[in-house]
Design brief:
43% of the residues lie in helices and 0% in strands. The chain has 243 residues and is mainly α. It has helices spanning 23-27, 43-52, 66-75, 90-99, 102-105, 114-123, 138-147, 162-171, 186-193, 206-215, 218-223, 230-240. Helix 9 runs parallel beside helix 10 and helix 10 runs parallel beside helix 12 (230-240).
Length: 243
């Protein structure tokens, strides 16, 4: 059943099934204009073609259109993918990284495109991520902070991206949490406070002290009964009243 935009090739020209080398597959229902075509511009129809014709993926790795090369790479033999690490399009390189052995993926650790480096960060073993700790893109470092061995995380405590530091605070060994007391972002301090409430009892931000009230033991909760914020006092009192 046809769907999506009109079927045209990647340059906007009409498609001609009669001149296509995959024409015999149309009779068996594995391709057709408007729903399954390796030469279409519409990504969903390209992907459907390779789902129905995975045996044709290897033959399409050199296609002119990057969407076709990327979809073909998803289904092609892994032994054919090494050359795609040098493809001009980052989406194609990223797909090759996700499918090739880790030793091959590691070659693109310094790829100019961040999406490729993100793919590399997902593929590498946690103990091999140290070179990406200093990546210029926060999105790459966020993946590193999520996957790295906990022992590697102290080098990320001062990361310039608060989202990265917040994630580090949720995973780092508790002995390092005191380093977050001076963090300029209250959400980072809140993440640390949820794990070591005593360090943040007098934090200037209500969100951080509320985290203390949510996680602290009785002694700290008593100290919060005189907090200047009613919400903190009420939370501490409610928790103290619990059996």
């Amino acid at each position: 059943m046809p769907e999506g935009p009109p079927p045209v090739d990647w340059q906007g020209e009409p498609l001609d099934c009669g001149a296509c080398r995959f024409r015999p597959r149309r009779d068996s229902g594995r391709c057709g204009l408007g729903w399954s075509c390796a030469h279409d511009r519409y990504a969903r129809r390209i992907e459907r073609f390779f789902v129905l014709n995975p045996d044709m993926a290897d033959d399409c790795l050199g296609h002119s259109y990057f969407e076709t090369r990327m979809s073909a790479a998803r289904h092609a033999s892994v032994f054919r993918l090494t050359r795609l690490l040098g493809d001009e399009d980052p989406a194609v390189r990223g797909m090759a990284v996700l499918r090739l052995p880790v030793a091959q993926a590691e070659r693109l650790m310094k790829d100019p495109d961040r999406q490729v480096r993100i793919a590399v960060a997902y593929r590498l073993a946690p103990d091999r991520l140290l070179p990406l700790v200093q990546d210029r893109e926060g999105a790459v470092r966020l993946v590193v902070a999520r996957r790295a061995e906990p022992g590697m995380l102290p080098v990320m405590i001062a990361d310039p991206d608060p989202e990265v530091r917040e994630l580090v605070a949720t995973r780092i060994a508790v002995d390092w949490l005191h380093r977050f007391r001076a963090d300029p972002d209250p959400l980072v301090r809140r993440a640390a406070a949820l794990r070591r409430p005593a360090l943040f009892l007098r934090d200037p931000d209500i969100r951080v002290r509320h985290a203390v009230a949510e996680e602290a033991g009785p002694e700290l909760l008593c100290a919060l009964l005189d907090d200047p914020e009613p919400l903190i006092r009420e939370t501490a009192a409610a928790r103290l009243a619990q059996p």
